[in-house]
Amino acid sequence: MAELHPFFVHFPIAILVVAAGFEVYGASRSQEQHTQTAFLLQLMAGVFAIFAAISGNMAETLVANQKTLHQGVIEAFDKHASMGNAMVWLIILLAVGRTFAVLEKKDWAMHWWIFPILSTVVALLVIITGLLGGDLSASILTFYIDH
Question: What is the pLDDT of residue 137?
């Protein structure tokens, strides 16, 4: 499952960015259908984020057990893994908070900018996590080319 990590991570990254777009557009136009779409996208992203974290942790275990890795690669792994695991929890918290607001029909959640702002922050953090993963891949590739 570790080799599926790149497949699993790209979907939640893309879907969270799209969800943030729907959130901001829906809030700015007071169109509930767009915020509902964002909510469904966030739920789907949450499920895929769990698979991304599991496959990423498996990939980390495979590579981290290699004693010949350069310290820079290990540090890049640690940064990416920590940020990735934190993002899974943030995505889940966002989805749970949004689910609560929808089920309880909280007026403040439907008309204020709380969820559009949170969604945008989460999307930006997910992009940063993805960039750290790209840097990690480049570090590993460079390490293996040099050795």
Answer: 79
| Number of neighbours of residue 8 by Cβ within 10 angstroms | 18
Is residue 63 in some structural domain? no
Answer yes or no: is 61 within a domain. no
* Spatial distance between the Cα atoms of 115 and 27, rounded to a whole number of angstroms: 9
Tokens 């570790």: give the residue.
2
Of 127, 131, 128, 121, nearest to 94 (Cα)? 121
DSSP symbols for 125-144: HHHHHHHHHHHHHHHHHHHH
Structure tokens at 97: 């908070």
Give the structural domain span for 91.
2-56+68-146
The answer to whether position 6 is within a domain reads yes
Nearest in space to 84 (alpha carbons), one of 134, 138, 23: 134
What's the whole-model pTM score?
0.82
Q: How confident is the model at residue 147 (pLDDT cuts 50, 70, 90)?
A: low
